[in-house]
Amino acid sequence: MVPMRQIDIDAPLATAFVTRGLNFAAGIISAGAVAGLTSVLLVLLLGQSRIFYAISRDGLLPPTFSRVHPKYKTPSIPTILTGVAVGLTAGLVPIKEIAELTNIGTLFAFVLVCFGVWILRYVEPGMRRPFKTPLVPIVPILGAASCALMMCGLDERTWLRFFIWLGIGLLIYFCYGRFHSLVDAASTERHRVSMS
Predict the structure, then answer these.
(1) Residue 17: Cβ within 10 Å count
(2) How far apart, in whole angstroms, are the C-alpha atoms of residue 32 and residue 38?
(3) Angle, helix 138-152 to helix 95-123, in steps of 10 degrees
């Protein structure tokens, strides 16, 4: 619709329609983008609070994170903390840096998932799997390699922030989660029962 050099990176589709005189279509596209971003943010915020809830229930975070609100039956403390942290971050940190940190964190999670699929296939061969990844270990290796390659394209500051966040997470695990984990106790008990 427009020459490549005229594409506005911040709103490429809406700007392309504006340059062609289609302001009404650009307005609809912009409204759709706002609605889409809002719904994605809402899902991510709710998802993060539920992740804290599940991790706390497994003993890797303090029990405060797994308490539910008496009236709404939701994990209110993680929801409030997540909302405050996201609001402060969005208000104080440039969007480009937030996006890069989100990218490296998501890509690293995908690398772990890919290797987890491969490892679990051998460590837990009898585990019930509603969906089975084909061509293991080729697909997990290719998935992990492609995510790692994309991570390599991110700048040094993003990597530094990633290692700082990773260090904070490991510190929480080794100072608290490791000693309170119910997951390890449950897996040890399952292993003991299966051996007898």
Answers:
(1) 20
(2) 10
(3) 160
- pLDDT of 38 reads 85
pLDDT at 195: 46
What are phi and psi for residue 14, nearest 5 degrees? Answer: -60, -45
Choose the weakest-confidence range: 10-24, 127-141, 154-168.
10-24
Asked if residues 64 and 53 have their Cβ atoms less than 8 Å apart, the reply is: no
Helix residue ranges per DSSP H, the chain: 12-19, 23-57, 76-92, 95-123, 138-152, 156-172, 178-180, 182-195
Q: Which of 90, 72, 93, 71 is nearest to 82 (CA)?
A: 90
Beta carbons within 10 angstroms of residue 20's beta carbon:
12
Q: Is pLDDT of 185 > 90?
A: no
pLDDT tens, position by position, 106-119: 999 999 999 999 99
Q: How far apart are CA 38 and CA 64, in angstroms?
A: 28
How wide is the angle at C-alpha 26 spanned by C-alphas 8 and 34, nearest 5°? 85
Would you state the pLDDT for residue 191?
45
d(CA 179, CA 121): 28
Q: How many CB atoms lie within 10 A of CB 168?
A: 10
Q: Tell me the three state secondary structure of residue 167.
A: helix
Q: How many CA atoms lie within 13 A of 102 on its CB side?
A: 12
Amino acid at residue number 123: V
